[in-house]
Amino acid sequence: MSPTISHPLLRSLRSSLSWHDFSFPHSLLLLSAIFAICCWAWLRLTQKKTSPSLPPGPTGLPLVGNLPFLDPELHTYFAALARTHGPVLRLQLGKKLGVIVTSPATAREVLKDNDVVFANRDVPVAGRAASYGGSDIVWTPYGPEWRMLRKVCVLKMLSNHTLDSVYELRRREVRKTVGYFRIRAGSPVNVGEQMFLTVLNVITSMMWGGTVQGEERESLGTDFRQVVSDMTELLGKPNISDFYPGLARFDFQGIEKRMKGLAKRFDGIFEKMIEQRLKMERDGGSEEGRDFLEFLLKLKDEEDAKTPLTMTGLKALLMDMVVGGTDTSSNTVEFAMAEIMNRPSVVRKIQDELETVVGKDNIVEESHIPKLPYLHAVMKESLRLHPALPLLVPHCPSATCTIGGYTVPQGSRVFVNVWAIHRDPSIWSHPLEFDPERFLHGKGDYSGNDFNYFPFGSGRRICAGIAMAERMVLFSLATLFHSFDWKLPEGEKMDLTEQFGIVLKKKTPLVAIPSPRFSDPRLYE
After folding, report:
1. 143: which DSSP letter?
2. Integer angstrom CA distances of residue 280 from 268, 288, 294, 301
3. What CATH fold (topology level) applies to the domain 126-383+459-524?
């Protein structure tokens, strides 16, 4: 006997429904929908409970986050925060989430284990302004266009074969610098400025055959170096436009305007060189394979290329060479010379090695360099203490992933603090001491596979110019310490203080006095 249903609403409901309404297929469909909803709710709840949290970090302020507390010397500021918050930490930078990675293990996760995810860049406004809208190797998103640009640059401009073929260019410019220092023997010279011009002349000779000579050398070298220095400083400077994209059109700090002005100076040079080369081709006076610019112009005209090279991309590559290749190498030479001069025992070891391998009545050649293991160790140790790009170039994950047990959201700006890793006392004994001995016997390389030491980065976005930088720095250091003794002006003390930018530089330029080591004038020609 069924129970009596007395409630009017229930009686009405029962009378309005029949068994047909709840036939087996309909019931199964309803149960399936309920089950699916329950599963979805359970998964969401479970995911919420099990998904790793964001990295820890200092407390910020409403709307602005941690922006007001940023120190201009970001590499040391980030290192100090890591000592409190751990090897993966976050900063809320306006609307942008910044993530700082400061250990070999977490750097490996970013640059190797999740290389493809982190192969893109969070392009700053200054980067777009400097590189024709982000059209160069540094800022172009990972994909076919980037692979084409890197292949062109590495295989044609920076391969060992190409670098071997233009050795005479490097030799000529380094010998000019030796002559410059010889004439000014006994007087203070700005070492970094002259090394910048040496590298600039090598690069422009490779690109389009142009060098700076005569009286113009010193003045133009100073001017060019200032432009490049200003550009790299702007690239490393926190910019409100990057952290609040909706405000970018106002350019409150004037960074975009200033960068466009600086980039325009180089663009004028590029336009002039391109027009000259095109005119030579029209007149039939161009020689096959003459330089890098000619190769790029021919590549641009290839109609069957899978990924064509545009004129914008061509000029962006030239900008990469001028800006990326000059300041980094000359600053590395300057830091290395400062560290060497600060330790007389290191000077003696370098010069003893050079006299054994090169001799006192000979000129340094690049063929001597592989036989100078101590000098190699000096360069490696200088790059350990003063990596050219202390935070590398910031990465940007294309998908949310987990690093060091924490969630790193898609679109974050990820900094890898290689400067801090290179000075970590848990990795390096006496980490603040300049000790080349730690790199003897083949220890340390630039491949990016050792995440205790990777001054040129790692993974797909590793620096494309390692071979060029190594040759220029080692050849320059060997020549300068073989040809001269160096000392500071009377009463001066060595200042090794760094100044942060996307490229690290000496806060106080190295001004030193050269003294010829040999009496034979032919060794200074």
Report:
1. T
2. 18, 12, 10, 16
3. Cytochrome p450 (1.10.630)
Contacts of 333 (CB under 8 A, 6+ apart): 191, 192, 195, 472, 473, 476, 477
Please check the confidence at residue 48 and state whether its pLDDT lies above 60: no
Backbone angles phi, psi at 208, to 5 degrees: -145, 10
463 is in an annotated binding site: yes
Gap between the Cα atoms of 29 and 304, Å rounded:
56
**Gap between the Cα atoms of 134 and 140, Å rounded:** 6
Rounded to whole angstroms, how far apart are CA atoms 403 and 199? Answer: 39
Helix/strand/coil for 258: helix
Model confidence over 56-81: pLDDT tens digits?
999 999 999 999 999 999 999 999 99
Could you tell me the residue ranges of all domains in the chain? 126-383+459-524
Read off the tokens for 258: 């200033």
- Hey, what long-range contacts does 485-493 have (CB within 8 A, 24 or more apart)? 485/514, 485/515, 485/517, 486/337, 486/341, 486/347, 486/512, 486/513, 486/514, 486/515, 487/341, 487/512, 487/513, 487/515, 488/341, 488/512, 488/513, 489/188, 489/513
Number of other residues whose CB lies within 10 A of the CB of residue 28: 10
Summarize pLDDT for 438-491 with one digit per residue, the tens.
999 878 999 999 999 999 999 999 999 999 999 999 999 999 999 999 999 999
H helices present in 237-324, as ranges: 240-243, 255-282, 292-300, 311-319
